Amino acid sequence: MTSDSSVPIAVSVVPDNPREVNCHEQVRIKNEDGGIMLILPPEAETPATSSWSDLWQQLKQRLNGGDRFWQPNTAVHLVAKDRLLDARQLQAIADALSEDQLKLKRVYTSRRQTAVAAATAGYSVEQSPPVSSFNEKPSGPAPLLTEPLYLQTTVRSGMEIRHPGTVVILGEVNPGGSVIAAGDILVWGRLRGIAHAGAEGNPQCLIMALQMEPTQLRIGDYLARSPETPPAQFYPEVAYVTPEGIRIAKAADFPKTQFLSLGARG
Predict the structure, then answer these.
(1) pTM of the predicted model, to two decimals?
(2) In this model, does residue 155 exceed pLDDT 50?
Protein backbone atom coordinates (compact mmCIF):
# COMPACT_ATOMS: atom_id res chain seq x y z
CA MET A 1 0.00 0.00 0.00
CA THR A 2 1.19 3.48 -0.79
CA SER A 3 -0.05 6.80 0.45
CA ASP A 4 1.03 10.28 1.30
CA SER A 5 2.72 9.79 4.66
CA SER A 6 2.76 13.49 5.55
CA VAL A 7 0.18 14.14 8.23
CA PRO A 8 -0.65 17.59 9.56
CA ILE A 9 0.28 18.07 13.20
CA ALA A 10 -1.40 20.63 15.41
CA VAL A 11 -1.24 21.43 19.10
CA SER A 12 -4.48 20.49 20.86
CA VAL A 13 -6.28 23.22 22.77
CA VAL A 14 -5.95 22.64 26.51
CA PRO A 15 -9.06 23.57 28.53
CA ASP A 16 -8.79 26.10 31.34
CA ASN A 17 -9.65 23.39 33.84
CA PRO A 18 -7.92 20.08 33.07
CA ARG A 19 -10.46 18.24 35.19
CA GLU A 20 -13.11 19.09 32.60
CA VAL A 21 -11.48 16.78 30.06
CA ASN A 22 -13.68 13.73 29.46
CA CYS A 23 -11.64 10.52 29.09
CA HIS A 24 -14.13 9.38 26.44
CA GLU A 25 -13.07 12.36 24.31
CA GLN A 26 -9.46 11.13 24.28
CA VAL A 27 -7.58 8.49 22.32
CA ARG A 28 -7.06 5.45 24.56
CA ILE A 29 -4.77 2.41 24.35
CA LYS A 30 -5.68 -0.72 26.30
CA ASN A 31 -4.03 -4.10 26.75
CA GLU A 32 -6.68 -6.74 26.16
CA ASP A 33 -6.16 -10.52 26.07
CA GLY A 34 -2.65 -10.27 24.68
CA GLY A 35 -3.62 -7.68 22.08
CA ILE A 36 -3.90 -3.91 21.97
CA MET A 37 -7.10 -1.92 21.59
CA LEU A 38 -6.71 1.55 20.12
CA ILE A 39 -9.95 3.35 20.96
CA LEU A 40 -10.82 6.60 19.24
CA PRO A 41 -13.27 9.03 20.86
CA PRO A 42 -16.77 9.01 19.34
CA GLU A 43 -17.18 11.77 16.80
CA ALA A 44 -20.62 12.59 18.20
CA GLU A 45 -19.15 13.24 21.67
CA THR A 46 -16.10 15.30 20.72
CA PRO A 47 -16.14 19.09 20.42
CA ALA A 48 -17.05 20.51 17.05
CA THR A 49 -13.67 22.24 16.97
CA SER A 50 -11.82 18.91 17.21
CA SER A 51 -10.09 17.87 13.97
CA TRP A 52 -8.05 15.03 12.52
CA SER A 53 -4.92 16.96 13.51
CA ASP A 54 -6.05 16.96 17.16
CA LEU A 55 -6.77 13.23 16.99
CA TRP A 56 -3.39 12.56 15.38
CA GLN A 57 -1.60 14.57 18.07
CA GLN A 58 -3.35 12.59 20.80
CA LEU A 59 -2.42 9.30 19.15
CA LYS A 60 1.27 10.26 18.94
CA GLN A 61 1.27 11.38 22.59
CA ARG A 62 -0.26 8.05 23.69
CA LEU A 63 2.29 6.04 21.72
CA ASN A 64 5.30 8.08 22.79
CA GLY A 65 4.40 8.72 26.41
CA GLY A 66 4.20 6.45 29.44
CA ASP A 67 5.23 2.83 29.79
CA ARG A 68 5.16 0.73 26.66
CA PHE A 69 3.50 -2.43 27.90
CA TRP A 70 3.33 -4.22 24.55
CA GLN A 71 5.56 -6.79 22.93
CA PRO A 72 6.98 -6.33 19.41
CA ASN A 73 4.56 -7.18 16.58
CA THR A 74 1.52 -7.11 18.88
CA ALA A 75 -1.76 -7.01 16.95
CA VAL A 76 -3.85 -3.84 17.27
CA HIS A 77 -7.64 -3.63 16.96
CA LEU A 78 -8.76 -0.12 16.07
CA VAL A 79 -12.14 0.81 17.57
CA ALA A 80 -13.08 3.73 15.33
CA LYS A 81 -16.72 3.90 16.49
CA ASP A 82 -18.63 6.53 14.46
CA ARG A 83 -15.50 8.32 13.31
CA LEU A 84 -15.09 8.77 9.56
CA LEU A 85 -11.62 7.67 8.44
CA ASP A 86 -10.38 7.58 4.87
CA ALA A 87 -7.61 5.43 3.37
CA ARG A 88 -4.92 8.08 3.99
CA GLN A 89 -5.82 8.45 7.66
CA LEU A 90 -5.93 4.69 8.21
CA GLN A 91 -2.51 4.40 6.58
CA ALA A 92 -1.16 7.16 8.83
CA ILE A 93 -2.44 5.31 11.90
CA ALA A 94 -0.92 2.04 10.67
CA ASP A 95 2.43 3.75 10.00
CA ALA A 96 2.47 5.32 13.47
CA LEU A 97 1.76 1.94 15.06
CA SER A 98 4.44 0.31 12.94
CA GLU A 99 7.02 2.78 14.24
CA ASP A 100 6.28 1.42 17.71
CA GLN A 101 6.42 -2.21 16.55
CA LEU A 102 2.65 -2.61 16.54
CA LYS A 103 0.59 -4.02 13.67
CA LEU A 104 -2.92 -2.86 12.77
CA LYS A 105 -5.07 -5.94 12.13
CA ARG A 106 -8.76 -5.17 12.56
CA VAL A 107 -11.06 -2.15 12.42
CA TYR A 108 -14.37 -1.87 14.27
CA THR A 109 -16.62 0.85 12.89
CA SER A 110 -20.23 1.92 12.56
CA ARG A 111 -19.44 4.00 9.43
CA ARG A 112 -19.84 2.38 6.04
CA GLN A 113 -17.16 4.59 4.42
CA THR A 114 -14.62 3.63 7.08
CA ALA A 115 -15.45 -0.06 6.64
CA VAL A 116 -14.91 0.18 2.88
CA ALA A 117 -11.62 2.06 3.29
CA ALA A 118 -10.33 -0.44 5.86
CA ALA A 119 -11.28 -3.54 3.86
CA THR A 120 -9.79 -2.07 0.69
CA ALA A 121 -6.55 -1.48 2.59
CA GLY A 122 -6.47 -5.15 3.60
CA TYR A 123 -7.61 -5.01 7.24
CA SER A 124 -10.23 -7.22 8.84
CA VAL A 125 -13.41 -5.21 9.37
CA GLU A 126 -16.47 -5.43 11.55
CA GLN A 127 -19.17 -2.91 10.76
CA SER A 128 -21.41 -2.97 13.78
CA PRO A 129 -22.01 -1.06 17.00
CA PRO A 130 -18.52 -0.65 18.55
CA VAL A 131 -17.52 -2.88 21.47
CA SER A 132 -15.34 -2.13 24.45
CA SER A 133 -13.44 -5.44 24.55
CA PHE A 134 -12.44 -8.21 22.19
CA ASN A 135 -14.75 -10.73 23.82
CA GLU A 136 -17.75 -8.51 24.53
CA LYS A 137 -20.84 -9.17 22.44
CA PRO A 138 -23.58 -6.58 21.88
CA SER A 139 -26.71 -7.25 23.91
CA GLY A 140 -29.52 -8.49 21.69
CA PRO A 141 -29.41 -8.98 17.92
CA ALA A 142 -27.68 -6.28 15.90
CA PRO A 143 -30.04 -4.24 13.74
CA LEU A 144 -30.01 -5.42 10.12
CA LEU A 145 -28.66 -2.69 7.88
CA THR A 146 -30.90 -2.29 4.85
CA GLU A 147 -28.08 -1.18 2.57
CA PRO A 148 -25.51 -3.81 1.53
CA LEU A 149 -21.80 -3.35 2.07
CA TYR A 150 -20.10 -3.15 -1.34
CA LEU A 151 -16.38 -3.91 -1.46
CA GLN A 152 -14.16 -3.81 -4.53
CA THR A 153 -11.23 -5.77 -3.15
CA THR A 154 -9.71 -9.21 -2.61
CA VAL A 155 -10.33 -10.73 0.81
CA ARG A 156 -6.90 -12.16 1.45
CA SER A 157 -5.82 -14.88 3.88
CA GLY A 158 -6.21 -13.69 7.46
CA MET A 159 -8.83 -11.05 6.57
CA GLU A 160 -12.34 -11.22 8.00
CA ILE A 161 -15.28 -9.09 6.92
CA ARG A 162 -18.30 -8.85 9.26
CA HIS A 163 -21.44 -6.90 8.43
CA PRO A 164 -25.00 -6.88 9.87
CA GLY A 165 -26.54 -6.95 6.38
CA THR A 166 -25.74 -8.22 2.89
CA VAL A 167 -22.13 -8.18 1.62
CA VAL A 168 -21.28 -7.78 -2.08
CA ILE A 169 -17.64 -8.34 -3.04
CA LEU A 170 -16.35 -7.37 -6.48
CA GLY A 171 -13.26 -9.51 -6.25
CA GLU A 172 -12.18 -12.79 -4.73
CA VAL A 173 -12.23 -14.43 -1.33
CA ASN A 174 -8.93 -16.28 -0.99
CA PRO A 175 -8.33 -19.38 1.16
CA GLY A 176 -7.90 -18.22 4.74
CA GLY A 177 -10.20 -15.23 4.20
CA SER A 178 -13.75 -15.13 5.56
CA VAL A 179 -16.94 -13.16 5.02
CA ILE A 180 -19.63 -13.20 7.73
CA ALA A 181 -22.93 -11.45 7.01
CA ALA A 182 -26.34 -11.29 8.64
CA GLY A 183 -27.78 -11.11 5.12
CA ASP A 184 -26.75 -12.64 1.79
CA ILE A 185 -23.21 -12.92 0.42
CA LEU A 186 -22.49 -12.22 -3.25
CA VAL A 187 -18.97 -12.73 -4.61
CA TRP A 188 -18.40 -11.44 -8.13
CA GLY A 189 -15.33 -13.64 -8.49
CA ARG A 190 -13.94 -16.81 -6.93
CA LEU A 191 -15.07 -17.81 -3.46
CA ARG A 192 -12.28 -19.98 -2.03
CA GLY A 193 -12.42 -19.06 1.66
CA ILE A 194 -15.17 -19.17 4.29
CA ALA A 195 -18.60 -17.63 3.78
CA HIS A 196 -21.29 -17.45 6.48
CA ALA A 197 -24.58 -15.90 5.39
CA GLY A 198 -27.54 -15.45 7.73
CA ALA A 199 -25.04 -15.33 10.57
CA GLU A 200 -27.70 -14.33 13.09
CA GLY A 201 -29.62 -17.54 12.42
CA ASN A 202 -31.51 -16.81 9.19
CA PRO A 203 -31.56 -19.96 6.99
CA GLN A 204 -33.33 -18.11 4.16
CA CYS A 205 -30.16 -16.27 3.16
CA LEU A 206 -28.10 -17.15 0.10
CA ILE A 207 -24.45 -17.35 -0.92
CA MET A 208 -23.68 -16.64 -4.58
CA ALA A 209 -20.38 -16.71 -6.45
CA LEU A 210 -19.15 -16.75 -10.03
CA GLN A 211 -16.85 -19.62 -9.06
CA MET A 212 -17.75 -21.60 -5.95
CA GLU A 213 -14.68 -23.26 -4.37
CA PRO A 214 -15.27 -22.56 -0.66
CA THR A 215 -13.31 -23.96 2.22
CA GLN A 216 -16.54 -23.82 4.21
CA LEU A 217 -20.10 -22.59 3.68
CA ARG A 218 -22.50 -21.68 6.46
CA ILE A 219 -26.05 -20.41 6.17
CA GLY A 220 -27.73 -19.76 9.49
CA ASP A 221 -26.86 -22.79 11.62
CA TYR A 222 -26.25 -25.08 8.62
CA LEU A 223 -22.72 -26.06 7.63
CA ALA A 224 -21.22 -27.51 4.44
CA ARG A 225 -17.67 -28.09 3.28
CA SER A 226 -16.19 -28.06 -0.18
CA PRO A 227 -16.09 -31.46 -1.95
CA GLU A 228 -12.70 -33.14 -2.05
CA THR A 229 -12.82 -33.40 -5.85
CA PRO A 230 -13.48 -30.05 -7.56
CA PRO A 231 -15.80 -30.02 -10.58
CA ALA A 232 -14.32 -30.20 -14.07
CA GLN A 233 -16.01 -26.94 -15.02
CA PHE A 234 -17.24 -24.00 -12.97
CA TYR A 235 -20.45 -22.02 -13.36
CA PRO A 236 -21.99 -19.17 -11.37
CA GLU A 237 -23.68 -20.95 -8.48
CA VAL A 238 -26.00 -20.32 -5.54
CA ALA A 239 -25.87 -22.01 -2.14
CA TYR A 240 -29.14 -22.25 -0.21
CA VAL A 241 -30.76 -24.29 2.56
CA THR A 242 -33.17 -27.18 1.96
CA PRO A 243 -34.67 -29.62 4.48
CA GLU A 244 -31.66 -31.84 3.73
CA GLY A 245 -29.13 -29.08 4.44
CA ILE A 246 -27.12 -26.75 2.22
CA ARG A 247 -27.39 -27.37 -1.50
CA ILE A 248 -25.64 -25.68 -4.43
CA ALA A 249 -27.28 -25.04 -7.80
CA LYS A 250 -26.26 -23.36 -11.01
CA ALA A 251 -27.40 -19.76 -10.96
CA ALA A 252 -29.25 -20.28 -14.26
CA ASP A 253 -31.28 -23.11 -12.69
CA PHE A 254 -31.75 -21.55 -9.28
CA PRO A 255 -35.24 -20.00 -9.63
CA LYS A 256 -36.67 -23.42 -10.55
CA THR A 257 -34.67 -25.19 -7.85
CA GLN A 258 -35.75 -22.64 -5.24
CA PHE A 259 -39.40 -23.07 -6.20
CA LEU A 260 -39.19 -26.86 -5.80
CA SER A 261 -37.35 -26.48 -2.49
CA LEU A 262 -39.96 -24.11 -1.07
CA GLY A 263 -42.67 -26.48 -2.22
CA ALA A 264 -41.00 -29.34 -0.37
CA ARG A 265 -40.92 -27.26 2.82
CA GLY A 266 -44.63 -26.62 2.62
Answers:
(1) 0.76
(2) yes
